[in-house]
Amino acid sequence: MQRLFKMYLSDTRLVPTDIFPMQYGEEACCSSHTFGPCIRNNYLIHYVYSGCGRLRTDGTTRTIKSSQAFLICPDQLAYYGADSEDPWHYRWIEFNGSLSQPLLSAAGLSKSAPVYNDPDGELGAVLKDIVDRGEMSFEELMSKFWQFISRLTHGRGAERMDHGEEYVRKAESYIKTNLHRSVTVAETAAYAGIDRCYLSRLFMEHKHTSPRDFIISLKMNKAARYLQNPSVTVSEAAQAVGFCDTHSFTRSFKNHFSMTPSEWRKKFGWEQSIRYLENTDDMEGDN
């Protein structure tokens, strides 16, 4: 089977914060074509139109077939590959925003339940329409994307949130999108449109932690995931979560995990990575 690959990027200076698409595309994979292991920064949904393949996340391998979609969440180590005899043809869309998680929950999707069944093909038809249109204005793309979300959730949508929770979700979305740099509490509060002290109070109420500790926790946990890959150095893991100074990163990592990155990798990262790769039946990602 000849490989097909198309990808289109969402292009706008005015990005809504509730939920927004970032890129979308299509691929007809060759036999045994694989991707990963990798860690995404955003939510990603693949819809399989023909053939089949395997998805591996959190130590579980699932077979995905035609008329099924699968979700990959931010900061989740994922690995997927086409079947050797009947390789899949899928389209995908990547997105993020403060409403992403509640809308996905309304659709019954989560890290532990990543597979979506679409026997009538309605969700697949909407995504096909998006990808087949190729590049389009952001306004048109948002209109089509909301049709996709409506089909995904069967019109149920997310439960209504109070204003405090909306501010927290908006701030959380901003933090997760900017983990790769030195994001601050002040700029997060400004992005959410509220005072820094009010943001801190809301975080303690809804997250039971301060915004600063929430940022550090996300950065350290993401760095630990990067360190599961034996080819990633401590310096590279530090840079990936916004630390220019490896010494500062090591100090923060030790404060969070009670051990240095090197000690953590020696105790957990290397062995977990090796076991993970061995359990993928020698599938190796190429891009």
What does it look like?
It is a single chain. With 287 residues, the protein is an alpha+beta fold. It has 2 domains: 4-153, Jelly Rolls, CATH 2.60.120.280; 163-277, Orthogonal Bundle (Arc Repressor Mutant, subunit A). 43% of the residues lie in helices and 22% in strands. The chain has helices at residues 100-106, 122-133, 138-153, 163-177, 185-192, 196-206, 211-226, 234-240, 246-257, 261-278, and strands at 4-9, 20-28, 34-39, 43-50, 52-57, 60-65, 68-72, 77-82, 89-96, 115-117. The strands form 2 sheets. The protein has a 6-stranded antiparallel sheet, with helices on one face. The chain has a 4-stranded antiparallel sheet with strand order 3-8-5-6, with no helix packed on it. Strand 5 (52-57) and strand 6 form a beta hairpin. Helix 2 packs antiparallel against helix 3 (138-153) and helix 4 crosses helix 6. It is globular. The chain starts with a strand and ends in a 9-residue tail after the last helix. Mean pLDDT is 86; it is low at 273-287.
Gap between N and C termini, in Å?
Answer: 18 Å
Q: Mind telling me the CATH superfamily name of the largest domain?
A: Regulatory protein AraC
CATH architecture identity of the largest domain: Sandwich
Radius of gyration using CA atoms only: 20 Å
Keywords:
Arc Repressor Mutant, subunit A, 287 residues, globular, 2 domains, alpha+beta, 4-stranded antiparallel beta sheet, Jelly Rolls, 10 strands
Entry summary:
With 287 residues, the protein is of the alpha+beta class.
